[in-house]
Amino acid sequence: MNVSMRACWRAEEVAGIVANEALEHHEAIFLATHSAIKGFDIRGSHQGDIRSAHESAVLQALSEPSRKHAFCVVQGEPGSGKSHLIRWLALKWPEGRDVTLLIQRADGSLEGALEQLKTRLPTEFKPLFDRLGRRQRATDEGRAKNFLSNLANALDPKYYDPPLEDVDWCAANLPGELIDNLTVKNEWTGPARILRLLDGKGETEDSERNSQSAVFNLFDISTLAEAARSVRNSGVRPGAERLAAKIREEADTIDAYRQEDWDDPEELLREIGPRVPYSAKLLEALNRRRNDAVQHLLGVSAEGLKDLFREVRTVLAQRGQRLVLLLEDITSWEGIDNSLIDVLVTNADTRSNDGKSDLCPLISVVGITPAYYADLPANYRGRITHELNLGLAKREGELQDVAALREEEARLEFVARYLSATRAGTDVLAQWRESTREQSSPDAPNLCLNCPIKTGCHATFGAFDDVGLYPFTRKALGNLFDALNERDNGLTWKTPRGILQAIVSPVLEQADAIEAGDFPTQRLDNRALLPDSRNLSGILEQMIDARLPAGSAHGQISRLISYWGDRNRSTTVRLEDGTIAFAGVAKPVYEAFGIPWIGDTETEFKPVPVVTPVVEFNPAESTQTVEEENNGPRRNAALNQTPVSISRPATPPSKRPSLTKSELQKSRDQLRHWKETGELLSPMEWNKLVHGLVQSIDAGSVSLDRDTFKRLFTESQVKLEGTAPIRRGYFWVSKDEWVLSGLEAYQALKLDKGLSNGEVEVHRRALAALLRRLEPQIEQYADQRLGLVDGKRLEPSVTYAKILLARAWLRGTASPDMPLPEQLKIILSDEDGAESDPATRSLQWREFLHKTNQQHRLLRVALREMLSIPQGESKSFGLADVSKLAAPLELFRVTLRFAPLPEDVDSGITLLETAKDIVSSVKGSLQNILRYERERLVSQVEGLMEIRRGSALRDHIERVEKAIDAVSTSVPGASPDLVRQWKTMFGRVKPLLDSDAVYAVQRFLLEVSDLKEEGKVISLKLAAGAPSRDLAQFKDLASLGETVVAELLEHVRDKLKARAGASSLADIHTMGTALVTLGSDQKGAMS
User: Fold this and answer.
1) What is the enclosing helix (H) or strand (E) of 89?
2) What are the tens digits of pLDDT across the range 1009-1030?
3) Residue spans of alpha helices (H) in 40-157
4) Pairing of strands 69-75, 362-368
5) Sign of CA dihedral 297, 299, 304, 305
6) Which DSSP string corresponds to 598-639?
7) Which portions of the sequence form the region Disordered (predicted)?
């Protein structure tokens, strides 16, 4: 088929045949377009009467002549087919002695329903309607104020006798006083909305009621809270003031959810009811009193309605007739609906006397919505004999589907009947209807049977039961149905009515556009079809822009591909029947609609799904980061982004309608939404994905080591534009076209198992371009975060290595004159015990080691990661790349100076900032540490050399011990504390005198003395290797010995003077000996 098609119907016929309401049709159209309703769920006390889930079984069970009572409820969402089933029952109800009354939904008002009832009942019953009451002669505003006053009175705790169950709550919170406030009366729109619904209108002036229940909801409470803003000090009592304050607080919660597209107040109440307890309780109180408050405004008496039906049934009982009430929509009767249900559930047999009843049998079939059913009192539910559920909700609180539309074949049959009827036209259908009265149900007219282009048309567009689907295709109907909004202000479009209003009518009304080659037009861009459903893949958009001839409409081909094709495909393939297709649309379809062919001439066969390798990445290790606040200008594009609105904490979950689609299509739609609005849905998932892509880049290609790369680009630091506050120092990935294409390509390679070879190649190129273009931005970001010194970026690995090497030198585990490989091996290995007696070192020496005590392990682990070159799949160390370290460490060995650090730069890497603090604490050099330690060592050496006066260290200490021991023995009580202190210290040091330690100290004393004579200073190597602890102990012991000897000498002299002339020759000899000994030792010490 290679010629343009023409419309085979008249556009003016569409409105009359594809009507919105089943009951607006005449019988011919109704029967021609009727698809059997089946697959529903059957419940109720007499559910076994209905043998199968088919409309014919329902008719057979309910119309059984012997049946005396039935209260059948048909439950389904608005537009699900309730009225269609009830109309079909009315048309097919067997003729007999039944008085069958079909009450259409008409204008949705009680007044309209009563007028139909009055018209359809026999003339003799019409006077009964005069007793029902008279509608108030008041304006809409006046009726709303009267309604509000009635509600206020009904909320008074003393109004009802007996009191209602919420009387205590009303007494405590005084809701009647609140809504009776003058400001509330003038500004609250809730009552006017209820009355508008009861009059059959929609919530707004230009909308229809659409089976909506006329009950107060949470949104009404929100508007009441606004109207009650000035209640305080207005004369109401404290209870009403408190209630107003509470609902104002809760209105903030309600409004926050509404901003996240929670547009169904009933669903919202189920979600947040416990969080808004005062609003929920007030809502319950208002709706409990609604019927009583509204009845006299409607001009109908509840008791009058009961009396009317009682008299009708009494008369019919006398005639032996049965009343059949078929009510399309119970909401049309709201205000007196409870009274009506009382009538419907009244079984004549319960009033029988001797087998006879004063009321006739009553068979009723009533259409209700799930929302109405949910509020139906339990005593009424228990008296439902047959309950037909036309759909089921997947989860509690969600909207129901339509059972008759679950299967694709059922949807095709439904649409095909309307297509066939529209082609035939109303005149042909009228003739057919007349023929059905004479024959036994002949088939509805099908103009396709004798169409000259039937073969080509059906081959291109498809057919169902010999009815051509043109201008649709099977795929188009599937795509359009999937695109229907399932959540639109509490309603779903995935119903028979939704298909007619959003799909069939908009397409068939474009007959002129088809003739002109402009189809499909913007008529398909209606709110019932989710905007996401028209989003093409980025690559496909680019191909259309590049290939579409000048002057062609981009929107036209985009709609065609979105709904008639596959918006995820961007290749030309040859189908099994030999035709070629681009983006899922066969070439004959392009030709039929007069749209330029933009596919390739060389094609691939439709591919078999294969697994396509993509960039693989694992979540990065969690690393602690320092978040930087910087309100100054950014230096590179990766850090810049335009300000965006920032979500508040604890934002309510979004209820935006979404398409039932693949994960790939969700991703594409979210990317498009991000591009167009700056808002990215599911930001956490996307940021995690982009972080993985960034981490897949080779760190070496951006001049970074692996550890620093991971710590700079953590999952919390990598952000797509618009997903976090601008003040944070994140690595921003902008929403440029190359980013969008790359992200879409990654998702396609990962999720789409049916890619052709050409598509795989295109996606790989787009992904490679994304990674390649990210690299310079990563380098710029690293320069910014790490900082530059003399135009060169700070190398964390060099800083870490120098700190670890300095620590090793000061601990004595490495020496500056060791070969560099040996020193690197030491700092990369776990630490053993220290060899430089750190505790006895200078304060500066000890502070450096103390600062690195808690960090050396972390620095070592990081340095290993920085230098390692793992082999194959191994996670172990493998080889090490020390090319960046060799020269800086050699310079450090000579100068003992760290490389300069960037000023006023916070990298956000905790470990690096700690390392920088360590370097700064020593002012960038080890020279100061060495200077203080050198001074300490020289002081100890000189002091010890002076005390021993040329004697060997061991000889000097042993001579002092001998003298102290002799005096303390000969002269008891001579300086006992000092003697005891000496004995204790000598006992600790004595093992050193018997070891090589004394010789090591002696050698160190000589080395230092030689350096002094040569005019040289102690090197870091000598200082680190000094026997610091032993030197200190010997120095302290020798100094104490000096003090003790001097004290004992004075003590002995004092004793001798005190005992002169009173001592024996033996005593004098002993003391003399001790005095000589001490004097000799003192003389030796001073010489």
Assistant:
1) helix 82-92
2) 888 888 888 998 998 888 888 8
3) 55-62, 82-92, 110-120, 140-154
4) parallel
5) negative
6) -S-SS-EEPPPP-PPP-----PPPP--BPPPB--S--SSGGG
7) 620-669
